[in-house]
Amino acid sequence: MRQVLLLDDNPAQLTIREMVLRKAGIDCHVATNANGALALLSSDPGREKIGAVITDHLMPGMDGVEFVRQLRSFNPEIPVIVISGLPDADQEYQGLNVIFRLKPCEPDDLINLVRTTLNDPRCRASA
User: Fold this and answer.
1) What pTM does this model have?
2) I need a labelling partner for 91 at 20 to 30 A (CA). Which of 10, 66, 72, 85 fits?
3) Which residues 6+ apart lie within 8 Å of 12 measured at CB?
């Protein structure tokens, strides 16, 4: 199974999501800023290893919307899950082909969502 890239500027959120997913047997890679995540996702190793992205909405420097726009410019197919505490933020992602979830995202829901996403054959089209 391919890895999930976790993107969040909050170390506590990253650690919790990584622990939840790893405990469920899902390999993760973490990034604390959008530029680092984009660099990985545009690299050959990143394209081979990363099968889905989970990102926060509000981040310094580049927010989730701009991150997804830039990602879609070179990878329109990779599944992206956006997790935000702002209920209206999903409207900002119209047309960007993301799965939007409100915080808190329960561990079982996150695990099931990631497993479904990684196992969907359409999600491997970018491999």
Assistant:
1) 0.91
2) 10
3) none
Range of the domain at 83: 3-124
Strand order through the sheet with 3-7: 28-31, 3-7, 50-56, 80-84, 99-102
* DSSP structural state of residue 89: G
For residue 95, pLDDT beyond 90: yes
Strand partners of residue 30: 6
Query: Given this model, what pLDDT does residue 119 score?
Result: 83
User: Residue 22 maps to which CATH number?
Assistant: 3.40.50.2300
Strands 80-84 and 28-31: unpaired
